[in-house]
Design a protein that fits this description.
Blueprint lengths: L5 H15 L15 H7 L16 E13 L2 E8 L2 E8 H4 L1 H10 L5 E10 L5 E12 L15 H6 L1 H7 L1 H23 L3 E2 L5 E2 L11 E4 L4 E5 L4 H10 L3 E9 L11 E10 L3 H18 L5 E4 L2 E4 L5 E4 H8 L10 H10 L10 H12 L8 E7 L15 E9 L2 E8 L4 H16 L10 H8 L5 E7 H9 L29
Parallel strand pairs: 3-5, 6-10, 14-15
Antiparallel strand pairs: 1-2, 1-4, 2-3, 4-5, 7-9, 8-9, 10-11, 11-18, 12-13, 15-16, 16-17, 17-18
Length: about 500
């Protein structure tokens, strides 16, 4: 038997006892008239009535029992649904002596019940439901964690998110906010003339970003496929085909480590805007952030962990080079000297991978000396071309890409650039990436000949951007770990017989 804990066995016996008296412990066909939140709003006036009740109104609610207090012939309980909780009261007189006697033996905290009754105010002044009928809709076999300590174990919370949501209402609110954020983003782009599209999740060639892919196998085709690193190259094919403004909200997969800001399966929005440039994207992104703050009723001075983020001023813009010099305090004289950069990094205790090009070494400087210092919203612009294989070169400096990244609270939130639309230049960049891969860079970009062919038909001047939704939700809900904004984050597999957290709050 799967349920072997003594308390679980007792509850299984209660489920059988319900069946024995003709009550299905797992009913269907349940309905409700109102949720707990609507109940409280609708019947707030009861407190002003002389009798403190309105027994002419009979309504049905459904919720999980979160608290039970038996008082002889009467019971006070709390039920909880998606929108909140509500106190209910029932007694032997209303339910009948026989059913009340069964309920007293068979009802547990954690059970889902369907209750009907009328609104009233208790002697302590709490709006409640006076129950006249009660049915157990779903019998809980595994007891909830002990009520005074709740579910504190982070590991268990991520593995058993369903239990986390039951025990921690603030978790449920975080994910409701996440859903609202995605809805606002979708509406924002639709209102700005963008078309939502869907592109493949399995790619014949991994591309769209420098990252190690997950590899799978397509049995019918007899070939390897790669879970997409990014939708970029397919979205740009659509612009070649004549769609001027497209976006996609969906998952990406990168075969990388896990930490506070990285999950191998993550959600982003990518959007491409023909006849616009990366400065237009920065303006649009800034506008989107302000719309989100307003819609979520968040202040412009926003707390995040131990930081304070100031959205009250226009977002700062600084070049990649100036950030190295002025924020990272890097000596400008070493920025074009690979050996000097390597020595600087090693001297300060940072590991340096072999065979990095100059742009990659500059990126190492940026990651180690600058990124965490970018607290207020900051666009870093004009990146080294070597680390921007899909970006257009600057007309003023061929070593610079017309690209930006947005940083807030020390985290990269978005990456955008003027798209490279010269097929010959793109072919040469892909070829250079292949050389890097041959030299040991397993995150280097593959050659995508079909994409080069698409560019050959003419790719209108376009700007494109990817924005990480998980990190955005972290920022707007004040969550420091990405696992707290992903319903089911990646976790190391454990054996089924490993000890699980158990408890009872009865």
């Amino acid at each position: 038997m799967f349920f072997t804990n003594q308390l679980e066995i007792q509850r299984l016996e209660k489920a059988e006892a319900l069946k024995a008296i003709g009550k299905n412990p797992y009913r269907h066909g349940t309905t409700r008239d109102i949720n707990t939140s609507e109940f409280k709003k609708r019947f707030a006036y009861i407190n002003d009535l002389e009798e403190k009740k309105d027994d002419k109104i009979i309504l049905t609610l459904i919720g999980r029992v979160k608290f039970l207090r038996w008082m002889g012939k009467a019971v006070f309980a709390k039920i909880e649904d998606e929108d909140g909780d509500l106190q209910i009261y029932f007694n032997k007189e209303a339910l009948g002596e026989e059913w009340f006697s069964h309920i007293k033996k068979l009802l547990d905290v954690g059970d889902i019940v369907q209750v009907s009754g009328y609104p009233f105010i208790t002697k302590t002044g709490e709006l409640s439901l006076h129950v006249i009928t009660l049915e157990i809709a779903a019998k809980s076999i595994t007891p909830l964690p002990e009520k005074f300590h709740g579910l504190q174990d982070k590991e268990l919370r991520y593995r058993q998110r369903y239990l986390d949501i039951i025990m921690n209402p603030e978790v449920k609110q975080t994910f409701k906010t996440r859903s609202k954020i995605i809805s606002v983003i979708r509406r924002f782009f639709e209102e700005h003339g963008f078309l939502e599209v869907e592109t493949p999740m399995m790619h014949p060639i991994p591309g769209g970003a420098n990252a190690k892919p997950f590899v799978t196998f397509h049995n019918a085709l007899g070939v390897e496929r790669y879970l997409r690193i990014a939708p970029e190259l397919y979205l740009k094919r659509l612009v070649v085909g004549g769609f001027d403004a497209v976006f996609e909200i969906n998952r990406n997969f990168r075969n990388e480590g896990l930490d506070a800001t990285h999950n191998p399966e993550f959600t982003s929005i990518e959007f491409y805007w023909a006849h616009h440039n990366y400065k237009d994207l920065m303006d649009l992104t800034e506008k989107l952030l302000y719309v989100l703050l307003q819609t979520l009723n968040l202040p412009e001075i926003l707390p995040y962990g131990d930081k304070i983020i100031d959205f009250s001023k226009p977002f700062q813009k600084i070049s990649f080079k100036d950030a190295l010099i002025n924020i990272g305090n890097i000596d400008a004289s070493i920025l074009n000297d690979k050996k000097a950069i390597e020595n600087k990094l090693k001297k300060d205790g940072f590991d340096v991978k072999p065979n990095l090009n100059l742009g990659q070494l500059k990126a190492e400087l940026f990651d180690n000396y600058i990124e965490e210092k970018l607290i207020n919203p900051t666009f870093v612009v004009d990146y080294p071309i070597e680390i921007s294989p899909l970006s257009r070169r600057s007309d003023e400096d061929k070593n610079i890409a017309e690209r930006f990244e947005l940083f807030i609270a020390g985290n990269e939130l978005a990456n955008g650039f003027n798209e490279l639309n010269d097929p010959l230049d793109q072919y040469a960049r892909f070829a250079a990436q292949l050389e890097a891969k041959a030299a040991g860079d397993d995150e280097a970009h593959e050659m995508d000949e079909d994409y080069i062919k698409a560019l050959g038909y003419g790719f209108a001047p376009t700007a494109g951007e990817g924005l990480g939704i998980d990190r955005l939700v972290m920022l707007l809900t004040n969550q420091i770990s990405v696992r707290d904004v992903i319903l089911f984050p990646a976790m190391k597999q454990i054996k089924s017989n490993d000890k699980q957290n158990e408890g009872d709050n009865e």
